[in-house]
Amino acid sequence: MRALIVDRSVPGGLRIGDVPEPVPAPNQALVLITATSLNYGEVKHGIEMAEEGTVLGWDAAGVVVQAAADGSGPAVGTPVVTLEEGGGWAELRAVRTDWIGVVPEHAEPGAISTIPVAAGTALRTLHRIGPILGRRILVTGATGGVGRYAVQLARLGGAHVIASTGDPAKHDEALRALGAHEVVSGPTQAGGGLDGVLDMVGGPQLVEAFDQMGAGGTLVAVGHSTGEGENFPFGAMFSGPGRDNRSIVTFMLLFCAGLDRDLTWLAQQVADGVLSPEITWRGGWDDVPDAVGALVERRLHGKAVLDLA
């Protein structure tokens, strides 16, 4: 079968090649992939770190062509959205059934393929913050794939949403259209008293965001795009009036239970137009170097989708 294979001798570090078809484990379904989305982390770090010949790819949408032998998961012919640690950049993929979401028949596969990492991470992060109705939530790195879904989901959940981006003037209109009440240039402009932070940036911005949280606030460290460490000054962790019981937490999406339910719900919202997939690049097999370059160089805001069918 065709797949995108890690080959760092070519532009973008990927080439089209032939690999053996996957053999599903008893708890895995075999899925014919029609579209996949690319994430910054996998093209920036995955290609650098993977062995030559590896097939990467976390997100993919397609149709079940072989149901799981243990009887779990969707039947043959079911349109699905899938998450795995690799294998999404290929024509066929074996996927654990608890990482498969069922997709409405009318859904567009490219839009659906943007869901697993970006929307799944945003949803689980907001769950980790807790009830957000009427709460002030800051989303840093708001123009990225996770950030754009987070802005929409936080607004859908009834939060007052503050979107942070390095160029507010450029992205103000688009982020407000997604649901942001405010668009700022960084955490220090958020006004303090935050109930929750979804941080995609890390480094100094994470430190600044923590300082802007009010009592009981939760900061979820999701992304680390700066590549810098977090250096908290003396006193940053002191408690006191309006600053008590603040926390910083992390999580890994692949360690979460119930992802099949999350993916199914998110697919329905995207299919119904409640959530926008925010696709800003789309192409075919031969266009991958362009997408990889745009993602690594931070020229692409939103999601990149690759049509494989």
UniProtKB/TrEMBL annotation:
Domain Enoyl reductase (ER): 9-306
SMART domains: PKS_ER
GO molecular function, one term: acryloyl-CoA reductase (NADPH) activity
PANTHER family: ACRYLYL-COA REDUCTASE ACUI-RELATED, SHORT-CHAIN DEHYDROGENASE/REDUCTASE
Name assigned to this protein: NADPH:quinone reductase-like Zn-dependent oxidoreductase
